[in-house]
Amino acid sequence: MRHTVFCVLSVLITIVLALVSLRYFTDFWLLSLVYSFQVHLSIVCAVGAVIALFFRRHWYGFLMLAVATFLNIHGVIMLREFAGRTPPEDAPRLFRLMSFNIENDNFENGGRIADAILASGADVVDIMEAEPVFAQLPRLQQLYPYRIGCDASEKCDTLVLSKRPFVRQETRDIGELWKQRLVSVSIDFDGTPVDLLFPHLSKPYFDDFQADELEDLTAFMKPHTGALVVAGDFNSSILAPTIQHFLRGTGLTTDFPEPTTWPVSAGSFGISIDHIFARPPLLIRATSRLEDSFGSNHYGLVSDFVREY
């Protein structure tokens, strides 16, 4: 009996470890979600290996434990790789950004979400799958008179609200799967011009569409050489090889550790698939998660930015 349990656990753990380890050989899109859960899966495998060793002390159990420990440590290292520099505590806040995928059929919570936006203190708000707050726009516009997206004549996906006027604004396609899923604006914050890009990427298991969208986003970023913020729903954690390649190629950084945003039911034990990135001379002082998901399948994020001098 003990031998059977050890064998069953060994087979299951080996399969999971093999799938996670494939990241070092291929960035195959079908495994992207597995890669995003590398830290979680490696912890589960390590616990499973310890249980297996309880049933039978065998060299293969120790090998599984060693591989799981390596994958866990390397996963944390990769998450830490893109942490931005911590700004001085006395550095004044330049602006606050809120980014939230509210889920497009979440109409019963539209009013509560609008209340949260108004109470957030954010200077700029990025709302994805924004149709549930369409009816709240007259109320939101009292505090955020400038907006792009959610015109009455088009389907509402990304809505960007601002307390300050846009120096430049544009909505464009990204990739080939969805239309009008990249909003680009420029805002002057007390003499500091900032470019803000708000993408909403497809899910990683939709073939290579997400990788193509990241290529388009990278190309679109090239003319933006100054202060830059990129925020939105990426549908992958930064452990996914495609996201890592994107960050390394663009020099973007984020807060560490990133708040987890999905799945909502997992709370703090989920993963971060919604991101707020910045590039010098901007630094992220802190990124926090909204305490309530307001009926969405994502948690929203709020980041405070300072200027590096």
UniProtKB/TrEMBL annotation:
InterPro entries reported for this sequence: Endo/exonu/phosph_ase_sf (IPR036691), Endo/exonuclease/phosphatase (IPR005135)
Domain Endonuclease/exonuclease/phosphatase: 98-294
Organism the protein comes from: Rhizobium viscosum
SUPFAM superfamilies reported in the protein's UniProt record: DNase I-like
Pfam families: Exo_endo_phos
GO molecular function, one term: endonuclease activity
This protein's UniProt keywords: Endonuclease, Hydrolase, Membrane, Nuclease, Transmembrane, Transmembrane helix
Transmembrane segments: 28-55, 62-79
UniProt-recorded name of the protein: Endonuclease/exonuclease/phosphatase (EEP) superfamily protein YafD
